[in-house]
Amino acid sequence: MKEPIKIVLFDDNARIRDSLALLFSTHEGFEWQGAYRDATEVMDIMDIYNPDVVLMDIDMPGINGIEAVRAIKKRYPEQVIMMLTTFDDNDRIFDAICAGAMGYIIKSKSLAYLINAVKEAHEGGSPMSPSVARKVLQLLQQKNAPADKEAFHLTDREREVLNHLVNGKAYKMIAADMKLSYDTVHSHIKNIYKKLHVNSVGEAVSFAIRQKL
Amino acid sequence: MKEPIKIVLFDDNARIRDSLALLFSTHEGFEWQGAYRDATEVMDIMDIYNPDVVLMDIDMPGINGIEAVRAIKKRYPEQVIMMLTTFDDNDRIFDAICAGAMGYIIKSKSLAYLINAVKEAHEGGSPMSPSVARKVLQLLQQKNAPADKEAFHLTDREREVLNHLVNGKAYKMIAADMKLSYDTVHSHIKNIYKKLHVNSVGEAVSFAIRQKL
DNA sequence: GATCATATCACCAATTCTGGTGAGATATTG
DNA sequence: CAATATCTCACCAGAATTGGTGATATGATC
Fold it and tell me: Does B166 contact A206 at a Cβ distance shorter than 8 Å?
């Protein structure tokens, strides 16, 4: 016999609280531990109930959902938390994920969908509404945009030297590592500076990292 | 009357090709444009059929699915592509997303799930199996791990100076920007170096960026 | 074969950074 | 009040970087 999944909800909307309370307290396999209109006492509630899954609204009076997630994750890093929200707002999604939310679904979805999402979250998945997922993927794609290797016309050797600079090496060390003379390294760096339009190690390093070179 | 969703599939598994062909060619709202055992002629196929959604296996003889995604995205940046795979392999997920895949679902899911996923992908969502989504979220969380502001005991002023260094500024400019004397900037930087255990601008910058300070 | 890009090395002068010591002012904390 | 941390500034000497001007050699390209 499987243990029921223990659930608490934080949401300032009374209708949502009531309908989810009804849903989960009557549904086989769940144990409803209560709904709260705000997250001011979130840590006390966590300590008392030790739920399996936390459902968290984003917009709430007092402490907002994202701060609450951060607080919970700080004390219980493994806690499964699912965001429940009305709209798919880019920035919020991002903040919620960084705070440690493990699922992000839109309230308009059916109750069956929600039941299933909670089960999946509890089993180690991260249910996401497809529109949310799209935004998450776009974020990841942005953050890992491939380096434009050909841009700036850096030669192989120059990229190699630049890489050493990024790793904080001094000319001397680079020369030693690459078995070159100090002046050759110097020469490569001069060329790098011209091509990148910079004129110091600091600029070159920050430029390189930002461009993912 | 809605246009049917045009679909092509690339998969080296004949059973998958057959069952999906049956599924989508008999299902209302879809137009099956064919299944291919490998992606060697992917670009020709794209040019001819101009599908709405591409279903792509990852493991294929010849050109693998991820390379195929990259090729398609290069010519058709807006193309909707969903990865179809047997296992949820971390690295592959990551590569596929960076290549530009807009959905990632596991073959073990039901056919109804797949139908729905294709619809959602076509409507601008990114259907993902929850286990895949979990890995994506973890990746994002890793990449945006919050800076441990308190770590390294950097003072406010020191962080400010460090930030200028990261932006490639020279001592002089920092002094001007912050309305300090050169020596004060110098002094702050000496303290930063001690605290971060580095001893050059290059090291400090790369350290700071990596630690997201 | 001439041209071009690349990679290698050298010398020089000016500038900048590094690391050291020291010190006054302010604010916080026990 | 004493101790501590922070922020500010100064001087000095050695080390490193920067920006020039060269040169030689190699391989690819036209």
Answer: yes
Give me the residue spans of the domains in chain A: 5-137, 143-211
Fold (topology level) of A143-211: Arc Repressor Mutant, subunit A (1.10.10)
CB A27: neighbour CB atoms within 10 A? 14
Q: Pairing mode, if any, of strands A5-10 and B103-106? A: unpaired
* Residue A36 three-state SS: strand
Rounded CA separation B81/B153 (Å): 47
Strands (E), chain A: 5-10, 30-36, 53-57, 80-85, 103-106
pLDDT digits (tens, 9 = 90+) for A159-197: 889 999 999 899 999 899 889 899 999 999 999 999 889
Pairing of strands B103-106, A30-36: unpaired
pLDDT in tens, A62-93: 888 888 999 999 889 899 999 988 876 777 88
**Is B21 an 8 Å CB contact of chain A?**
no
A142 in B contact zone (CB under 8 Å): no
